[in-house]
Amino acid sequence: PTEAEWERAAGYDPAMGIKYTYPWGDIFDGTLLNFCDVNCTRDDRNADFDDGFRDTAPVGTYPDGRSSIGLYDMVGNVLEWVSDWYDPRYYQQSTDTNPLGPLDGTYKVVRGGSWLSPEDEVRVSGRGSFDPSVSRAHLGFRCAMTAP
């Protein structure tokens, strides 16, 4: 998906017309995703939560963390590649309707945070970038297609 498509699928509730901070709402709940909790090796881990996973969790482990359209693991577990090239000014320069990222660049956008991400990086609006040639245990992708 594009970056805009990913964000809409992750945090927009079409029935309510509301954009959420997290797929499930606006209040963080560490029991609804796989993030840098007590099992994480980073210094900024959140020791208040223990999901039992040191790295990735099986898809669907957190059913109550689904997005309003039923998508699992939109935040946490693995950062997800999107098709857009990274531009730090994306939101300041993009159009309001179905924005597309730059035509080229050095880095590709990743969204959603991962099992290695602290609490402040696992928001629907969270974004990062990586060289598209790299492979990491906390990077993944989501297949997407145009709806019929």
Which structural traits does this protein have?
single chain; 148 residues; mainly beta; paralog of FGE (formylglycine-generating enzyme); four-stranded mixed sheet; two-stranded antiparallel ribbon; 2 helices; 6 strands; 9% helix
Describe this structure in words.
- It is a single chain.
- The protein is mainly beta.
- It has one domain (1-148): paralog of FGE (formylglycine-generating enzyme) (Alpha-Beta Complex), CATH 3.90.1580.10.
- 9% of the residues lie in helices and 15% in strands.
- The strands form two sheets. The chain has a four-stranded mixed sheet, covered by helices on one side.
- A hairpin with a 4-residue loop joins strand 1 (12-13) and strand 2.
- The longest helix has 9 residues, at 3-11.
- It is globular.
- The relative contact order is 0.23.
- The model has no long low-confidence stretch (mean pLDDT 92).
Question: End-to-end distance, in Å?
Answer: 15 Å
How many β-strand stretches?
6
% residues in beta strands: 5-15%
Shape: globular
Named CATH topology: paralog of FGE (formylglycine-generating enzyme)
What's the order of the H and E elements?
HEEEHEEE
Please give the largest β-sheet.
Answer: 4 strands, mixed
Determine the mean pLDDT. 92
